[in-house]
Amino acid sequence: MLLAITFVIASSIRPDQVYQHAHIPVLIPSTLHNEDANRRVYEYVESAERGTYKIRFDGLPNCFGAGACYIGFVSGGTKNQFSAYHPSQSVRLRDGTSAMFVPFGCGGSCGDSQITFRWHGYYYLLALKAATKVEMLRAANSMLPH
């Protein structure tokens, strides 16, 4: 049984600095899930260039996305990042934005759940390791401005 506790992260990444390279609105979740609520989240800008950015979340410093400490990532861009071949469900974010939810699968280890959505003309993808639909919606909703 997977038990995850939601916790709030204090972002060390400044969206305005990422925006200087990506030139698109930078959305970062303020809430993630994790099995240990006391564990710190380390954020890394994997890429930021005109029209796209990707920020990774890890549970340990210098993890580089390794399976044992990888939590997930968020990306935004001018192109749709959704893969239609995944089984998906249509969901709505708190502001009424249509989104697609893809549940995680497990084999040797569990993969990412994903939510993709279009907001103000840009496409966003949030992926979190072994997250439930409720956890994904909570994290995706925390990306939206109030």
Explain the overall architecture.
The chain is mainly β. The protein has one domain (5-143). The chain is 13% helix and 38% strand. The chain has a 7-stranded antiparallel sheet, covered by helices on one side. The chain has a two-stranded antiparallel ribbon with strand order 1-2.
Rg over CA atoms, rounded to whole Å, is 14 Å
Largest sheet: 7 strands, antiparallel
- Spell out the helices and strands N to C: EHEEEEEEEEH
Strand order in the sheet with the most strands: 3-4-5-9-8-7-6
Mean pLDDT: 84
Task: Explain briefly what this protein structure is.
13% of the residues lie in helices and 38% in strands. The protein is mainly beta.
Helix-strand blueprint:
Elements: E1 5-8, H1 15-22, E2 31-34, E3 42-49, E4 52-58, E5 70-77, E6 89-92, E7 98-102, E8 112-119, E9 122-129, H2 133-143
Antiparallel strand pairs: 1-2, 3-4, 4-5, 5-9, 6-7, 7-8, 8-9
Give keywords.
2 helices, mainly beta, single chain, globular
